Amino acid sequence: MSDYNFAYLDEPTKKMIRRAILKGLAVPGYQVPFASREMPMPYGWGTGGVQVTAACLTPEDTLKVIDQGSDDTTNAVSIRSFFAKVAGVATTTRTAEASVIQTRHRIPETPLRSDQVLVYQVPIPEPLRFLEPRETETRRMHALEEYGLMHVKLYEDIARHGAIATSYAYPALVNGRHVFDPSPIPRFDNPRLESPAIQLFGAGREQRIYALPPFTSVQSLDFDDHPFEASKADGACALCGATHTYLDEIVADDQGTRRFQCSDTDYCMERRA
Amino acid sequence: MNALAAGFANPPQESARAFRAAMQAMACPGTIQNITGPEVPGLSPAAALLLLTLTDGTTPVLLTGDAAQSQDWLTFHTGAPKAGSAAEAAFAVGRWDDLGPLNPYPVGTPDYPDRSATLIVEMAEISGDGPRLTGPGIETEVQMSLPDADALRLNAALYPLGVDLFLTCGSRLAALPRSTRIAEDG
Ligand SMILES: [Zn+2]
After folding, report:
1. Which Pfam families did the record assign (chain A) (predicted)?
2. With CB atoms counted within 10 Å of each terminal CB, which end of chain A scores lower, N or C?
3. CATH numeric code, B33-182
């Protein structure tokens, strides 16, 4: 324990990240640059989220880590045990018992509370990147609210597929001003981005932090004639019977039988308890 | 003597708790956090705690009025350089009248709205007796005492540019980010 500073990062680094978080909260959805540090894990494991969590944790926190809704993947288990070791915090798999939740690709089904913080691991923070590879240009586009091309792209989807095809990382307008990427959560989760909890987003490789204060307006981009729909697989969980949750389709046996089950494993177990 | 006034006994843990209070305040304008900070001449415990938690050698700090008494303490504990003017300040501390007009403080640039000053305003009191506030972090609306609603309304009109405020009073802490909309009445 004494080999590490509390929560691994040194104090100057945490100060820098903390200042970025505060500016991110003051301008919801705007991507604040920060100087990302090397973490003892690969980028694909969410080093941006890990750094944000490290800057937020207090000794009194209880941490939950989920990966695509599951507490039990290698990624989730590794990050959870990392913070148990370097911050000495309690850990849990129960959403209701957690004060800080780090997530990759889901929002927990259990409604979050105002005393909880949700930290997202973000691979690509820039929603305009696929339209414009140059950072200086996307920064300009945000500054000038030049979001027309984004709408054109979504409308092309409708023309081609009859509906907006984007099912993950569905872009939204935050506080009526900044278009943001909610990370690769399913668009089923988009309506729950308007939450009583503080939501923080960390992108390690791209060195960006952004934030949603509680109850911030988050409007998924859509059109009058094609309103946003929070879609999910049409089925029921084979374990708990839920039809209102986000479902993963899994291969259940050697015959290739497919079935659905809740992607949020804690929520599914709670329903069966 | 002032320089040797208390800092953090256990910096990582105490700064973590202080930051969470500051984050909660900034995320939820109109809410008041109670924090335990050090006794430093010229500063409220809340303002001293914010400075210990957020400033370092990269953040010029402008200490105005009584807060200027804490210059040696701040340099000793955080290494934050003294801002030569409001225009250079990453952080500024003092009573509203001592801080002066908002205009000279950095409000960020269109490409980088985060490059703006954070003002720590020492208040005689912080209460729910003030204008109605709406915006991010506020479920419906909330009321809070503000130092100068007219000046802060102009600041909010610069959004996404603008300065962000912490309000401090003894061990009490609140915040008013630029995103908060301030009603005209009351
Ligand atoms: Zn289920």
Report:
1. PhnJ (PF06007)
2. C
3. 3.40.50.11310
A100-133 tens-digit pLDDT: 999 999 999 999 999 999 999 999 999 999 899 9
Chain A residue nearest residue B139, CA to CA: A215
ipTM above 0.95, yes or no: yes
Question: At A210, is the secondary structure helix, strand, or coil?
Answer: strand
Note whether A140 and A264 are same-domain residues: no
Chain A nearest-CA distance from B164, in A, is: 7
Taking contacts as CB-CB distances below 8 angstroms, the residues of chain A near B54 are 15, 18-19, 22
| CA B133/CA B36 separation, integer angstroms | 27
The pTM of the full predicted model, rounded to 2 decimals, is 0.97
A242 and A132 in a common domain? no
Q: E strands of B81-131, at which residues?
A: 91-95, 118-122
CA dist list (Å): A84 to A54, A59, A65, A79, A251: 11, 10, 11, 9, 34
Give residue A239's domain range.
232-273
**Total domains, chain A:** 2
